[in-house]
Design a protein that fits this description.
Layout lengths: L1 E11 L9 E7 L25 H5 L9 E4 H11 L5 E5 L9 H9 L3 E6 L12 E4 L13 H6 L2 E6 L2 H13 L7 E6 L4 H14 L2 E2 L3 H5 L3
Parallel strand pairs: 2-4, 4-5, 5-6, 6-7, 7-8, 8-9
Antiparallel strand pairs: 1-2, 1-3
The protein binds S-adenosylmethionine, the ligand Nc1nc2[nH]cc(C(=O)O)c2c(=O)[nH]1, iron/sulfur cluster and magnesium ion.
Pfam family, one: Fer4_12
Keywords: 4Fe-4S, Iron, Iron-sulfur, Lyase, Magnesium, Metal-binding, Queuosine biosynthesis, S-adenosyl-L-methionine
Catalytic activity: 6-carboxy-5,6,7,8-tetrahydropterin + H(+) = 7-carboxy-7-carbaguanine + NH4(+)
Length: about 220
């Protein structure tokens, strides 16, 4: 399995249940969903002209549309070469569920790593049984993709980006259609740190006993 990778870096997980956990991020290039407020729009297109060497991809200092091809083994080797110490690996993108992560999971889990995937839930998941699935539902997005029933059933965590009441209403409709198990953590993530979005998310989280996810890395100005 060859993966088209936009970036690999070690940082602190800034979102969801694992907020605060030292983590290695593996970001896949490519996403067709088209959320207008997406904070990683440079990962949307897979432009052949933007393919670079693994070394160049690893040495990026700012976000760019450049990507490199790596095998599962090359990703593991890269963790070693970079001297990363984190044992939690976050697979994100782009939309990571467009490819099969089981070859990478097999190698990493044998070495004691735990995997988490951040996904829109619009593609069938190809992950190991142990992978923690963070589903960030995408409702009414320009690409016209729908959140899948099998993704809702597999999610360990549902983390919904919100700015307006209509986003809460859309989440309510989704949860009514696919009621999650009692142990699934539901959180609201304010879009782009907007004060009114944060106010709304806090208020609804308190009313519903949901969690607030604030993209800690953006407040800390880290990757
Ligand atoms: C960039 S996406 C990549 C993974 C996958 N495509 C997805 O949407 O879950 C990672 C997370 O960032 C969230 N996100 C993207 N842009 C955001 C923004 N401007 N404000 C808050 N959350 C955002 C997404 O909803 C998702 O939970
Ligand atoms: N620190 C940090 N935490 C994150 N959690 C989810 C991220 C993502 O882009 O998927 C992300 C990210 O880009 N940085
Ligand atoms: S699905 Fe994820 S990566 Fe794709 S546009 Fe939406 S937030 Fe961005
Ligand atoms: Mg991000």
């Amino acid at each position: 399995m060859i993966y088209r990778i936009n970036e690999i870096f070690q940082t602190i997980q800034g979102e969801g249940v694992f907020t605060g956990s030292p983590s290695i991020f593996v970001r896949l290039q490519g996403c067709p969903v088209g959320c207008p407020w997406c904070d990683t729009q440079h990962t949307w297109d897979i432009d052949p002209a933007q393919q670079v060497s693994v070394e160049r991809m690893l040495s990026k200092s700012t976000a760019s549309a450049e990507w490199a091809e790596l095998s599962a083994q090359a990703i593991v080797d890269c963790f070693q070469q970079q001297g990363y110490s984190a044992k939690h690996v976050v697979i994100t993108g782009g939309e990571p569920a467009m490819v099969d992560w089981r070859p990478l999971a097999e190698l990493l889990e044998a070495r004691g790593y735990q995997l988490q995937i951040e996904t829109s839930g619009t593609f069938a998941l190809q992950v190991s049984a142990q992978t923690w699935v963070t589903l960030s539902p995408k409702l009414d997005m320009p690409g016209g993709y729908l959140v899948r029933a099998d993704c809702m059933a597999r999610a360990n965590e549902i983390k919904h980006p919100v700015a307006m009441q209509k986003h809460i209403d859309a989440l309510d409709a989704l949860l009514a259609q696919y009621p999650p198990a009692a142990n699934v953590v539901i959180s609201l993530q304010p879009i782009s740190q907007r004060p009114r979005a944060t106010e709304l998310a806090m208020q609804v989280c308190i009313e519903r006993n949901w969690r607030l996810s604030v993209q800690l890395h953006k407040y800390l100005h880290i990757e």
